[in-house]
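F.,

This is the one I mentioned.
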């Protein structure tokens, strides 16, 4: 996939919505292999009201969630099956070796890199990292499992 995917297209592919949609744009994607996405960190993000009012930083768990949502988009582009009302949903099943190297501030652009490490039937394993200005801010191994809503 060589074209940039904007927020309108992302909303067609993922069930997430504001304030929990944490991917603004897909910059590059090689289905079955890797994806590069972007999250613009703006000062009006809801979580900055409490994390922390005097020194706002993006929570690490939301950095991981942004990477997981990016992995979900890679699954869609690989399998060509978007989530519908009950099927084709993917859930974060595990986070291993998470590391946080730098704070993410309002005004930053978070680049989200996700690569497929392995895939077995309903379980995907991804190597993921986020950077700001080419500086590593976090990394983790993500496990994503297919599930059905009940």
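My design for it:
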């Amino acid at each position: 996939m060589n074209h940039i995917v904007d927020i309108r297209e992302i909303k067609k592919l993922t069930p997430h919505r504001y304030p929990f949609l944490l991917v603004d744009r897909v910059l590059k994607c090689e289905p079955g292999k890797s994806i590069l996405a972007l999250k613009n960190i703006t000062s009006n993000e809801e979580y900055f009201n409490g994390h922390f009012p005097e020194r706002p930083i993006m929570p690490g768990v939301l950095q991981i969630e942004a990477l997981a949502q990016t992995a979900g988009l890679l699954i869609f582009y690989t399998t060509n099956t978007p989530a519908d009302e009950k099927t084709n949903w993917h859930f974060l099943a595990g986070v291993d070796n998470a590391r946080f190297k730098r704070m993410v501030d309002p005004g930053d652009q978070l680049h989200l890199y996700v690569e497929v490490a392995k895939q077995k039937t309903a379980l995907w394993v991804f190597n993921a990292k986020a950077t700001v200005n080419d500086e590593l801010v976090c990394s983790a191994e993500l496990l994503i499992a297919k599930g059905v809503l009940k």
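The domain at 7-147 is CATH 3.10.129.10 (Thiol Ester Dehydrase; Chain A).

Talk soon.
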